[in-house]
Design a protein that fits this description.
The protein is mainly beta and 71 residues long. It contains no helices and 5 strands. It has a 5-stranded antiparallel beta sheet, with no helix packed on it.
Length: 71
């Protein structure tokens, strides 16, 4: 779980499905918001969380997962 700032609108800056980057030292891991409730979100981190401290920085991209598809 991560606490996020809530602007005057009362809505979180992170939304369900948005991607995030968890940063600690030289390590960067991609994560996705799997739950959002006002000032707290839960993330699923791709690539594992071993060695990531609770002091790691989290940056929200404001975008969901995107993919290109061709037929």
């Amino acid at each position: 779980r991560v606490r996020v700032p809530v602007p005057g609108s009362g809505r979180s800056l992170a939304r369900y499905g948005d991607l995030a980057v968890v940063e600690e030292g030289n390590r960067r891991l991609v994560a996705q918001v799997i739950a959002a409730d006002r000032d707290e979100v839960s993330l699923t981190v791709f690539g594992g969380t071993r060695g990531i401290s609770t002091a790691a920085r989290v940056r929200f991209t404001g975008h969901p997962v995107e993919t290109t598809c061709s037929y």
